[in-house]
Design a protein that fits this description.
464 residues; alpha+beta; Methyltransferase, Cobalt-precorrin-4 Transmethylase, Domain 2; Heat Shock Protein 90; Arc Repressor Mutant, subunit A; 3 domains; six-stranded mixed β-sheet; four-stranded mixed β-sheet; 14 helices; 18 strands; 33% helix; 19% strand; globular
Length: 464
């Protein structure tokens, strides 16, 4: 990502800004990122994106040395230097680590939202257990080698990776496969390698496929009470091919209708494609592949689409923080799918799924978690082709709130900052209460927390 784009973003789970080269908060953030999902620390610019100047590149060497002797176990951090007209800016790239890291004084920190949070008690126990869970991807599969890989799939991955990182790797394909963990040093294929590149990964990992079923009614019985379905398809192969085929089948089976918007003719589907794809990709990327005996299930009913992935929520993720937090049970698989382009940016899938459903006139997705499975349900709020215009606004709404709703209709979302720009002469507290009132009325849905908070339409076409 270009430095100009990075400076336009807000601090969050994987991004932090440090205006000055102060070792203490920087080292704390390095530990937090390493214990969470990795991230980038921009040094020499504040959270508003303003370059503060005064950074001396030579000083960064001392900081890197500190990351080796003031962090346990030692952690290596990559640094990029950008010379801008306003001054020097450094970007520290911190990888997610499979080990648990602490500062030299014993403190263990992890990233929560845009904060570095001290881990104690059950939080620390959960963090420790999550470190061990990531090693499953690297387990070797006895009797396998690079000969079990589909080299066309490998070549496709390498090409996509090269487009994203033109100077990221120079060497042989086999060396790259070892570097990313797809092959062991001895040349044995790992779980991650077979899942991403295997010619027939289900021979060794039969649970790694996906089953699609379309039912005729709102339950698993037909209109006359008989058990049956209209279509069933068991989808196998490496993960990229599973995603592609499952999406194709879902597209074929969803109701569709051509609609004209402006001067263009567009295909409108039963559920927004963005939401279906995100639910599918999340299931493939984050399922627990250690759970044998059950595949990912994609079930299309008359009134809903359910996507279930085996394994409970990973790490510290709960139903309460699922929108704001992000955790990868399978970080190497996630990175592979990110290089491929199936994941656009880490941590945004749930937000995009919610926003697309609401914008298309449907209720927000339902999330259900058990110790052994996680299900996303997309429920139908209107039929294909049915107008999705918002119902008449309540008469007791003030003019500011009407402005806010007009803004959301035009731009898809509104933030507190957007609302302050719309109403510059009104106090922040009054504007906050305005938005809270619209949430209470059921017109807006609040997404995110703190600086990442924004609001989208919750009710369209008379649906809640």
């Amino acid at each position: 990502m270009a430095i100009t784009q990075l400076l336009q973003r807000q601090p969050g789970l994987q991004l932090d800004f440090q205006g000055v080269l102060d070792p203490n908060p920087i080292l704390e953030t390095i530990v937090s990122f390493a214990n969470s999902e990795g991230g980038q620390i921009v040094v020499g610019a504040n959270a508003s994106g303003r370059v503060t100047g005064g950074i001396v590149v030579e000083d960064i060497e001392n900081l890197l040395q500190m990351s080796l002797y003031r962090i346990r176990p030692p952690l290596r951090v990559e640094v990029e230097t950008f010379e801008l007209p306003q001054g020097t800016v450094l970007v520290l790239n911190v990888p997610r680590s499979n080990e648990l890291h602490s500062l030299i004084d014993g403190r263990v920190l992890a990233r929560r939202g845009n904060q570095n949070v001290l881990q104690t008690g059950t939080d620390l126990t959960s963090l420790v257990s999550s470190r061990a869970g990531g090693d499953y991807e690297l387990e070797p599969i006895a009797g396998t080698s690079i000969d079990d890989f589909d080299m066309e799939v490998v070549a496709e991955y390498v090409e996509y990776r090269r487009r994203r990182q033109p100077r990221g790797f120079v060497g042989s394909t086999e060396a790259l496969l070892r570097q990313i963990g797809a092959l062991t040093a001895e040349g044995v294929a790992t779980v991650m390698g077979l899942l991403l590149f295997g010619r027939e990964p289900q021979i060794y990992l039969p649970q790694s496929g996906l089953t699609f079923v379309k039912f005729a009614s709102s339950d698993r019985r037909g209109e006359h009470g008989q058990i049956g379905y209209g279509r069933r398809e068991d989808i196998n192969g490496p993960l990229a091919r599973i995603i592609e085929r499952a999406w194709q089948v879902a597209w074929e089976e969803m109701d569709k209708q051509a609609v004209v918007k402006g001067l263009t003719r567009q295909e409108q589907t039963e559920y927004p494609g963005v939401s279906v794809r995100e639910a599918l990709v999340n299931a493939v990327a984050h399922r627990d592949y250690r759970v044998a005996g059950r595949r990912i299930e994609m079930l299309l009913y008359r009134d809903r689409l359910e996507v279930t992935s085996p394994g409970g929520l990973p790490g510290y993720i709960t139903l309460q923080n699922i929108v704001d937090e992000h955790f990868s049970r399978n970080p190497r698989l996630v990175n592979g799918l990110l290089q491929w382009g199936y994941i656009e940016e880490l941590g945004l899938g749930i937000d995009k799924m919610i926003e697309a459903m609401i914008a298309d006139g449907h209720p927000p997705p339902d999330f259900k978690a058990s110790p052994h499975a996680f299900t996303v349900t997309l429920r139908k709020g209107r039929e294909v082709g049915q107008p999705g215009q918002m119902q008449q606004w309540e008469h007791n709404m003030n003019e500011r709130q009407m402005q806010a709703l007009q803004f959301v209709q035009q731009y898809g979302r509104i933030t507190n900052s957007d609302y302050r720009n719309l109403c510059p002469n009104v106090s922040s507290e009054t504007l906050r209460l305005d938005l809270a009132d619209l949430v209470d009325k059921g017109l807006l849905l609040k997404i995110g927390d703190k600086k990442g908070t924004h609001y989208v339409l919750k009710r369209r076409g008379g649906q809640s």
